[in-house]
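We recall that each integer encodes one residue's backbone shape. We quote one record:
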Amino acid sequence: MRTKFILCAVAATLALHGASQASAAEIRLAKQYSMGYLQLNVMEHQQLIEKHAKALGISDLKVSWITLNGPAAVNDALISGNIDIATGGVPGLLVLWARTKGTPQEVRGVSALSSQPFLLNSRDPAIKVIKDFKDTDRIAVPAIKVSVQAITLQMAAAKAYGLKGFDTLDPLTVSMSPPDATIALLGGKSEVTSVFSVPPFQYQQLENPAVHTVLNSFDVMGGSHTFTVAWTTAKFRDGNPGLYKALVAALREATDIVNKDKTAAGALWIEDSKSKLPLDMVGKIVAGPQVRWTLTPENTMKYADFMAEVGTLKTKASSWKDYFFPEIYDEKGS
């Protein structure tokens, strides 16, 4: 009887060990179309997640990378279990955090990735401020109503038309990936007359003398703000503590690498995105005066407060720490 008990205990231990190893055998990360995810480019090329996971005793780790467009696609992939780590603008995180708060699948941020502006560019010379948009104009954003560009446009509209008019420009927005939106804007034959874009595409658009900037997101937010963040589920973090620790360590190391050689990091983005943009242009964008590569959330509460005020979020955050996991609580976030 004792022998049978011992054998059962050993079998249970091996089963638990196998389940633990299986749960930590793979991590799947999604990024979007922009230069806001340089840490991920570095992590992929230098296999930093694998490096830190191995140091923690997790070997034979499979790391998968995919590119998706817009927070809706990213969040659908996360909730359906097709990816483990999502990345995008702050509103994408906030929407899913509010929806899942208090559930086993609760979503929170892993860290910020960058603080940098995004620009609303137009080829229509008559459009100098957002009140100049007509009903016939179309503004391309990565995803209507939910992308960081769409929410920032609502914040700008609230300033121009009053809070009740925050969605005045929503009917003019259309969903397009940044590369496709840039092609449409520069081609001049599309119904799209303006694009609320992302780096580096927004700067590529401005190389055309017919294109000008109508709005800078820093003007709307009253200064520098987080552009891109990473988020995941409590289920993934709690179920894979070692792997999660490796992920955060990899993000920290990748951020240091980007800040030490921004041109080299830009070259990795060119390679991964198969971009034809010259390296000197990309390098200048990566090292721009308004660009910071940091894990510290910056002014994210402005998005949270606005989205709660207009009803986009049904849950109001009291602090940025409500929607980020504790591993970055030592950062001086906002």
Notes: The CA atoms of residues 89 and 228 lie 5 Å apart. Residues 119-221 form a domain with the D-Maltodextrin-Binding Protein; domain 2 fold (CATH 3.40.190.10). The two ends are 60 Å apart (CA to CA).
